[in-house]
From TrEMBL:
Signal peptide: none annotated. InterPro entries: Ald_DH/histidinol_DH (IPR016161), Ald_DH_C (IPR016163), Ald_DH_CS_CYS (IPR016160), Ald_DH_CS_GLU (IPR029510), Ald_DH_N (IPR016162), Aldehyde_DH_dom (IPR015590), LUC3-like (IPR044086). One of its GO terms (molecular function) is aldehyde dehydrogenase (NAD+) activity. It comes from the Eukaryota. Its EC number is 1.2.1.3. Residues 31-471 form the Aldehyde dehydrogenase domain. This is aldehyde dehydrogenase (NAD(+)). It catalyses: an aldehyde + NAD(+) + H2O = a carboxylate + NADH + 2 H(+). It is an enzyme of class 1 (oxidoreductase). Belongs to the aldehyde dehydrogenase family. The keyword Thylakoid does not apply. Pfam families: Aldedh (PF00171). Keywords: Oxidoreductase.
């Protein structure tokens, strides 16, 4: 039987969760609805004492939780997933208000939590055995201890759950710190966890950047899983080095797309545009550079422009909206800077306007820049917004070299009717994940992580559990 709805959940009151209990605080902050720029509900700002108490609770329960049979942990995770989905409508509405996602895509993120949970419930913790005449070597994997999850604002539900599930399944305890821009869904996600797990297994403490910094240096936390920007990721790694805690970093990218000359222009162009503009460009693996063979450059660009003009931008609760606002004012101003730089340098706007229209929300119309120079800001950097450059190429070797000419390497895509030829190109792209004939779509079935400065380690897939485990090897010598 699926669990019934929990009567104590109030969707307009928010708490930190420490040792299974709701906690308020003397100080509060507020998220902002990016569709209206209006202030949302109060959120308690966790104190250093809250963090200390959360770590103490997590460490106290860890010995018993880590020894709980994995089948029992699976059972509780399954119940947790069922509990979450009892509130699909509430989570969808709350996510739309705090993040700005249109209803269709907010609901898609909520539903995706079931996919991530379902995949992980099938996984086993690996074991290895080697034997020869003298000995038997057994390699097992043991939970790390207390994990800290520092989560971003672009997919606050899915990326929180994507850290909670593997951590809990492998026998760890976890403390989640949501982004202060989007704290609400994560707080409710973990409030619901208290109906399922023992106190201290899954906790959440919201606050400002100081709280995240304290988590990275605290000796009572054994691992940090961080999703966010490259500059912050470097600070996280530096801070974690002080206690040599384990670190997983999923950082930004400047994902390149290569369009081979044999594609069906009318079918592929809208898909490529969606790869750039999905979630208003606020995706770490969104397409951020488009290289199109010169023989089809103009018709392909024209087809992308036609599709882009058809996209409706609006608030999360408007009908027919495909793209919502930029999530917060800080990112909104950053994205506007790319428009201004493009305008000042006289680059051509294939679609979109040089000046972002002012309004009550943080809205930006999807924009394509026609053939800016390779050293331009819009090509070299990650805007994290709905603006993308398109450039022609004549030589495939040159396109591959340009795609790889970056300090980042998170994702990339290749499009071509000849799938074998497209896959050969994909093999040469320096990125953690490459998609052939699809825009970037991370999935729980595949390990996800970056190369170069796009991150360290990875999560999900069959081997993603190892990010939350230490190898433990026993050498047994046979008696003579």
């Amino acid at each position: 039987m699926s669990p019934s709805k929990v009567s104590t959940i109030e969707w307009d009151k928010f708490y930190n969760i420490v040792d299974g209990q709701n906690r308020l605080a003397k100080s509060v902050h507020n998220g902002v609805n990016p569709s209206t720029a209006e202030k949302l509900w109060d959120v308690p700002i966790a104190t250093e004492q809250d963090l200390e108490d959360a770590i103490a609770s997590a460490r106290k329960v860890f010995p018993s939780w880590s020894q709980t049979p994995i089948d029992k942990r699976r059972e509780l995770l399954k119940k947790y997933g069922e509990t979450i989905m009892q509130y699909e409508e509430e989570f969808t509405t709350l996510l739309g208000k705090e993040n700005g996602k249109p209803q269709l895509f907010a609901n898609g993120e909520v539903k995706a939590m079931s996919l991530w949970l379902g995949w992980h419930l099938k996984l086993e913790i690996p074991e290895e055995t080697f034997e020869d005449d003298d000995k038997v070597i057994k390699t097992r994997y043991m939970p790390l201890g207390v994990c800290g999850a520092i989560c971003p604002w672009n997919y606050p539900l899915l990326l929180s759950l994507g850290k909670i599930v593997p951590a809990v399944l492998t026998g760890n305890t976890i403390i989640v710190k949501p982004s202060p821009f989007t704290p609400y869904t994560s707080l409710k996600l973990i409030e619901l966890a208290q109906e399922v797990f023992p106190p201290g297994v899954v906790q959440v403490i919201g606050g400002n950047d100081k709280l995240g910094a304290s988590m990275t240096t605290h000796p009572g936390i054994d691992k940090i899983s961080f999703t966010g920007s490259i500059p912050t990721g470097k600070k996280v790694m530096e801070a974690c080095a002080k206690t040599l805690k384990r670190v997983t970093l999923e950082l930004g990218g400047n994902d390149a797309t290569i369009i081979l000359p044999d594609v069906d222009v009318e079918k592929v162009a809208p898909e490529v545009a969606m790869g750039a503009f999905q979630n208003s460009g606020q995706v770490c693996v969104a397409t951020k550079r488009i290289y199109i063979h010169e023989s089809i450059y103009q018709p392909f660009l024209d087809a992308m422009v036609r599709f882009t003009k058809s996209i409706k931008v609006g608030g999360y609760d408007e009908e027919g909206v495909l793209l919502g606002p930029i999530q917060n004012s800080m990112q909104y101003e950053k994205v506007k800077g790319y428009f201004n730089d493009t305008k000042v340098n006289g680059y051509k706007f294939a679609v979109g306007q040089p000046d972002v229209a002012a309004g009550k929300g943080f809205f930006v119309q999807p924009t394509i820049i026609d053939n800016p120079p390779e050293d331009s800001k819009i090509v070299q950097e990650e805007p994290f917004g709905p603006i993308v450059p398109a450039m022609p190429y004549s030589d495939l070797e040159d396109a591959i070299a340009r795609a790889n000419n970056t300090l980042t390497g998170l994702g990339a895509t290749v499009w071509g009717k000849d799938v074998e030829a497209a896959e050969k190109v994909a093999f040469r792209l320096e990125a953690g994940s490459v998609w052939v004939n699809s825009y970037e779509k991370p999935t729980p079935q595949a390990l996800f992580g970056g190369v170069k400065q796009s991150g360290l380690g990875g999560e999900w897939g069959k081997t993603g559990l190892l990010a939350y485990l230490n190898p433990h090897v026993i050498h047994v010598y046979k008696t003579k």
